[in-house]
């Protein structure tokens, strides 16, 4: 048990390996094993913030091997109730090119075989997931991006694929034909695990490439993703800081009530 605590958690995606200066690193173990990395805890504008690089700081966890359950559990055990989740995504929309920012409001799960619940045994716990993201967090993120002059796409659907490979052209065209906006590899089960712990969860999606079915060239490469992410890193980090400053102190959204009236087979940290 640590006396160090935090209120807001940031789970950094590819290229987003550090966030705050002057942090205390905390090693945590959970019933699901250790999280991707030690959690770095610091302060920003009077708010206590915990940072966790989703893939580990050396990017050792590919999307399908990320210890999602341990990550969210670790954050909650530190006191975190609000999670901001920046990530690199591909675009399924021709008008939405590299460097664009989106705050989706829907998610499609195309992953397979990932542990996606805390409630494996003892009792069936069915959380509502109709609106997978925190409405207050989304509003705050969109407003903060606008104020920063980075006009975001407000809404849209993120389809999460299993990876680690990128989509084929046919898959990508199919996703686009469904009207889906973005494609990523880590948004699920992260968002649902946050909901299962009654956390607020807000995605901040940085478009790094046009997905295979949309662009004309050779398809997505990992180098290109990292290049665009690197070029927009400072901007994204600043935006996450702006969102933290603007987040309401009290959670007036439905997220804290996600588990009301449900009988849980385990005690939450
Ligand atoms: Zn919320």
UniProtKB/TrEMBL annotation:
Its assembly, as annotated, is: Homohexamer. Dimer of a homotrimer.
The Nucleoside phosphorylase domain, residue ranges: 7-245
Q: Per its UniProt record, what InterPro entries does this chain match?
A: MTAP (IPR010044), Nucleoside_phosphorylase_d (IPR000845), Nucleoside_phosphorylase_sf (IPR035994), Purine_phosphorylase-2_CS (IPR018099)
**Which gene name belongs to this protein?**
mtnP
Known EC number(s)? 2.4.2.1
Residues recorded as binding substrate, renumbered to this chain, are 185, 209-211
A Pfam family reported for this protein in Swiss-Prot or TrEMBL: PNP_UDP_1
Cited SUPFAM superfamilies: Purine and uridine phosphorylases
UniProt cross-references to PROSITE patterns, sorted A to Z: PNP_MTAP_2
Q: In which pathway does it act?
A: Purine metabolism; purine nucleoside salvage
Q: What biological-process terms (Gene Ontology) are attached?
A: L-methionine salvage from methylthioadenosine; purine ribonucleoside salvage
User: What UniProt keywords are attached to this protein's entry?
Assistant: Glycosyltransferase, Purine salvage, Transferase
Any extra detail in the entry?
Although this enzyme belongs to the family of MTA phosphorylases based on sequence homology, it lacks several conserved amino acids in the substrate binding pocket that confer specificity towards MTA.
Q: Does the keyword Glycosyltransferase apply?
A: yes
Q: Which reaction does it catalyse?
A: a purine D-ribonucleoside + phosphate = a purine nucleobase + alpha-D-ribose 1-phosphate
Sites where the protein binds phosphate: 14, 54-55, 87-88, 186
Which NCBIfam families does UniProt cross-reference here? MTAP, PRK07823.1, PRK09136.1
Annotated site (Important for substrate specificity), which positions? Answer: 167, 222
- This chain belongs to the protein called Purine nucleoside phosphorylase
Q: Name one GO molecular function term.
A: S-methyl-5-thioadenosine phosphorylase activity
Q: Which GO terms describe its cellular component?
A: cytosol
Q: Does the keyword Glycosyltransferase apply?
A: yes
Q: What class of enzyme is it?
A: transferase
Superkingdom classification of source? Bacteria
Question: CDD domains given for it?
Answer: MTAP_SsMTAPII_like_MTIP (cd09010)
Identify the species of origin.
Actinomadura macrotermitis
């Amino acid at each position: 048990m640590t006396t160090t605590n935090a209120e807001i958690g940031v789970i950094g995606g590819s290229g987003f390996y550090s966030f705050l200066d002057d942090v205390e690193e905390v090693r945590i173990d959970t019933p699901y094993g250790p999280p991707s990395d030690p959690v770095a805890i610091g302060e920003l504008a009077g708010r206590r913030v915990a940072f966790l690089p989703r893939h580990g700081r050396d990017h050792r966890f590919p999307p399908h091997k990320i210890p999602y359950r341990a990550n969210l559990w670790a954050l909650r055990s530190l006191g975190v109730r609000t999670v901001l989740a920046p990530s690199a995504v591909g675009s399924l929309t021709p008008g939405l090119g590299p460097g664009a920012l989106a705050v989706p409001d829907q998610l499609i799960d195309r992953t397979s075989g990932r542990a996606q619940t805390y409630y494996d045994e003892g009792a069936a716990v069915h959380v509502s997931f109709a609106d997978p993201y925190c409405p207050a967090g989304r509003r705050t993120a969109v407003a903060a991006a606008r104020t920063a002059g980075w006009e975001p796409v407000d809404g849209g659907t993120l389809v999460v694929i299993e990876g680690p490979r990128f989509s084929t052209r046919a898959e990508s065209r199919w996703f686009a034909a469904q009207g889906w906006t973005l494609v990523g590899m880590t948004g699920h089960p992260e968002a649902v695990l946050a909901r299962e712990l009654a956390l607020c969860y807000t995605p901040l999606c940085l478009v790094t490439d046009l997905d295979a079915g949309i662009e004309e060239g050779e398809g997505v490469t990992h180098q290109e993703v990292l290049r665009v992410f690197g070029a927009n890193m400072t901007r994204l980090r600043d935006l996450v800081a702006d969102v933290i400053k603007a987040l309401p102190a009290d959670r007036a959204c439905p997220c804290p009530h996600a588990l009301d009236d449900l009988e849980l087979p385990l005690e939450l940290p």
